[in-house]
Request: fold
Amino acid sequence: MTDSAGRLTVITGPSGVGKGTLVAQLLQRHPLIWLSVSATTRSPRPGEQEGSSYFFLDRPSFERQVAEGGLLEWAEFAGNLYGTPRQPVERQLAAGRPVLLEIELEGARQVRHSFPAAFQVFLEPPSFEELERRIRGRGTDSEEAIARRLERARVELAAASEFDARLVNGDLLQALAQLEQLMGLAA
Ligand code: ADP
Ligand code: 5GP
Reply:
């Protein structure tokens, strides 16, 4: 395995495009990669675990983290706050481990400024209709949350050209192979 050491990679793209699914496959094949666990004020979905899916915080605790400079980046998304705890990322990078962030657009833009050397990949759906099908098919969001996510998706998709690489998540295995190639990982 030739996981590139100590490099920060950001995967972004609209909600429902398949970031989580693709990242899970990538980690299974490249266990050296360290995936950051974000903090969020969103409520846990069924099956999500505190500390491995997210650190679930109430708003005052999240805001305290922001005030103390504990987050590398953070953003509001569809009515909830999300952010990357700074220390663990810095520690893993210092230890030479490849680090992966799976975050939305505003956060990715912040990382572009704070870590200009980070490699940023934008994941795109084959079509907007397919994106909507995937969000609905996931079956975890209320109708109101789906509407907010789709509205936000239009804004995010318009920003695709800002990124180092764009990747269409049509066939999952094909997207995985392309991501491995982009990240310089041995298949
Ligand atoms: P995100 O993390 O970007 O919000 P998810 O990984 O939760 O997206 O994927 C949203 C839905 O789309 C899930 O039900 C997932 O199984 C499905 N999905 C992901 N990738 C693909 C793909 N390449 N083809 C078809 N369905 C996919
Ligand atoms: P979800 O509620 O579907 O888990 O996540 C909603 C969006 O927030 C997704 O686009 C996801 O990538 C993004 N997200 C998750 N964690 C973070 C984070 O730490 N920072 C930012 N900026 N976005 C995040």
Observations:
- The pocket of guanosine-5'-monophosphate (ligand 2) is lined by residues 15, 19, 38, 42, 73-75, 77, 82-84, 102-104, 106-107 (CB under 6 Å).
- DSSP finds seven helices and nine strands in the chain.
- The chain has a mean pLDDT of 94.
